[in-house]
């Protein structure tokens, strides 16, 4: 799969300008609670006629002295991110009944998620699941609720990360 630009959607971006379905955005990471957010967003989008968006953020390569190694590391990170997005897109397809819009961004997760929300006016809800660990709800939720929430233009839904599938099904 090729991606034309690091900060543009690469699948499902053929939406017509007349079609303005709300996108429920989920940040794809390796946390166990991410699957809770994914299920909630998929079922909620299906029920309300919205769409699901998945965003994965990879770090920019920082190997100025060893450019070839940095480029290889960036290429590998991008391939892994695309594969992870495709795996979760299959889950969304199963739950939602359609393919999600996939975004691959390069940079720092906190700022890139906020930037994406500001850029894509069809994103109408950010869905996150809170960590069940004792360290708090998670770094992205903490950042958004303490520093950014008053500056973003959409609601943020925080789903308890310990919900079971049947609990999510009942809530949605």
Describe this structure in words.
With 172 residues, the protein is α/β, with parallel strands linked by helices. It has one domain (19-171): HUPs (Rossmann fold, 3-Layer(aba) Sandwich). Helix content is 42%, strand content 20%. The protein is built from five helices and six strands, in the order ββαβαβαβαβα. The protein has helices spanning 34-48, 67-96, 109-119, 139-148, 165-171; strands at 9-11, 23-27, 51-58, 101-106, 123-130, 156-160. Strands 1-4-3-2-5-6 form a six-stranded mixed β-sheet, sandwiched between helices. Helix 1 (34-48) packs across helix 2. It is globular.
What structural keywords apply?
172 residues, Rossmann fold, 6-stranded mixed sheet, globular
Task: Write a compact overview of the structure shown.
By secondary structure, the protein is an alpha/beta fold.
Number of strands: 6
Distance between the termini: 33 Å
- C-alpha-based Rg, rounded: 16 Å
Report the CATH C-level class: Alpha Beta
Largest sheet: 6 strands, mixed
Structural class comes to alpha/beta
Name of the CATH architecture:
3-Layer(aba) Sandwich
Helix fraction? 40-55%
Strand arrangement within the widest β-sheet reads: 1-4-3-2-5-6
Put simply, the count of helices is: 5
Which overall shape is indicated by the principal axes computed on the Cα atoms? Answer: globular
Succession of helices and strands: EEHEHEHEHEH
- Which range does the strand content fall in? 15-25%
User: What's the domain count?
Assistant: 1
